Give the backbone structure.
Amino acid sequence: MKSKNFGCMLLIILTVILASGILNGCAGTEGKGKKEGAGGSKAAKGRYVEKEVELPFGEGERGLNIAKTKEGNLVLFSSVENTEVNRYEYIEGSWMKSPLDWVLKVCKEGFYPLAVNETKDGVQFVIGKDDNGKTHILRSTDAKNGTELKIPYLEKKKEYGYPHIASFLVDDGGNYWLQDIYNSKVVVVSADTLEMIKEIKTRDSGTDSQELMFAGEDKTVAVNTEDGKYTVYNKDLEELGTFPYDGEENGQLCNDGKNWYMVTEEGIARMRIGDDSREVIMDGNMGAMGSPVNSSAGMVCKDEGEFYVLYMQWKTMTFSLARYVYDKDVAAVPEHTLQVFGLLESDTIRQAIVGFQRDNPNVKVEFNNSGKGAGEISSDDIRTLNTELLGGKGADVLLLNGLPADAYIEKGILTDLTKILKKLMKENAYLENIVKNTVQKDKKVYGIPVKFTVPIMFGDEQIERALDSLDSLKVYLEKNPDARIFGVTSKEYIRDFLFQMYQEELIKKDGSVDKTKMEQLLELSADIAENSKTEFFEEKNMESEQDTLFANPGDIYITNHPDMVATDRVSNLSNMVIPYEIAREKKFKVKVLKNYYIPEAIAGINSNTKQEDIAEEFLKYLFSEELQEAKLDDGFPVMRSALEAKKQEVNDEYATAYSMSVSGNIDGEDFSISAQYPTEDEMEDFVGLCETLENPANQDRAVWNIYRDEADKVLGGSINAKEGAENIRKKVELYLAE
């Protein structure tokens, strides 16, 4: 879903996805990790490696969680069609299946299993929900017959409904621990009376399925009581101490009887009670945990230094199982290191790193970026990079979004990729206009976008025609001085949209500014802003440092006011949901803007790289079928077959289970809309529109920042349009001279 700051508009965004997932990691022997902030030596040999373990699942079978028997065997639990539950035990490299037939005897209908807990004594607990959202916990002591635990706490319905139990466990004292997501607490229940005997406050969870408590092999329980901190309890419910975790999101944990381990996208880390540091024993970039398509669905520590992690791929509703083991004979650091740099973070690049390193274990790929959001990147950030590149240094592979690619070509910084692209196009079909037109000069290609996003528009046809050029927009406003071109919207959106729409008129071929056209743009921006009630967004403190390029934060206004145009920037099927529903309801035709596309992850190779062969292989992998077909949300694929597959994606299980509702109040008017994925016919039309795209909506981030700073002054009333245009002209010329 597209990020919009709807909070202060009293908009409620509800996304319902009928799926679940979990994740976690375990331990290793002492001294094998890198202790953060503590330095440490690097051994020539030895590091953790990942090996895939084949899963025993059949058609329609989903993983629930993994555990371990008292003998140390790995156990995997699954469900089929949200009804029957299976148990698989991994014995000497083979899976032994044991259906939990007793579950259906206890709950025959309307019970959806979510997880299974099995004690070392073989007592099984199955946790699930019914159609009313009520949690049920079933127990069997002999794996043949079962009963439901009538826990009073689960019967108490409050404002948000019944308690939402994200996880359940049994401690060494026999107590039942229930993690209540909605009420941000853990409730400990007596196994004898089923009454609550302790309440522990947790941090707020980010999702409905995020586990915040874990049982250890040392018979303790760790609870995520605060951001960045876990508190450990013994069977007598006494606090034993705390340990920290790092990162914005925590993953699942496991305990080997001595230490705690956590697996996140950052890797596997080891933590100890009372120690404020943490040891990273495996880099997330070197394993499946670093992939944006993976969410962990369970983790156990098996033997000393050995871990198993069950992953779920949300978009495909599939699972994978990975084993992590320390290999003392493999090189501690891969022989080659490939540096990749981009101004912004990229899920596609993160996914590419995981796949490329898997196929090339002797190469480590390091992806560095500014660490800032799109609207936070400064001209100084780019100047620093430019200085490095002009000095013959810099990353091997460059992501050119927001960078002065034309200047890099002129200075000889970028490698000619024409031959590589021709070879790629012999092997697969790509959207030729997009891969060739983005960064090219004299019929040579210097940068190729891995993905692209699409600006769309629908609404009043007269306004759509008026937006063709600065002159036609000026004429329309002269005839309709009170027109709300974009409805109620923000100054930032007006500022960015108009600049991008008319950039070719504003910026000359040599990179300098057409002062007359710039003044005209700033005047029109001020006129449109005056009619757009931008103070609504200002009063609600809804200005944002994020890019508002093509994405109108008030486009839902068109549902009550069809005499405007709505525009959006779509990068995946999920954020097509609302705009396409509005267009469908109001019988608008969705169009593309001036055949624009926004190139994403534009890959180029630094001509000064010392690893040209590896850089070329990495670039080729970016356009491989494997990566182009990955279910990521940061753009549409440039490979034709992968784009065509989007037509069928609207019918898969994830898509049909997805719905979204948006409601709220804008400037005193109520709005409400509910929608699901676009239809197959709509996707057919959209893919057809993508075939027509040929104009890259590129931005030189330094010029973009100069324009924004001065345009904000004009829109804020501190200077007039003439002054703003002159300031922009001078600053851009100074930048070009540098």
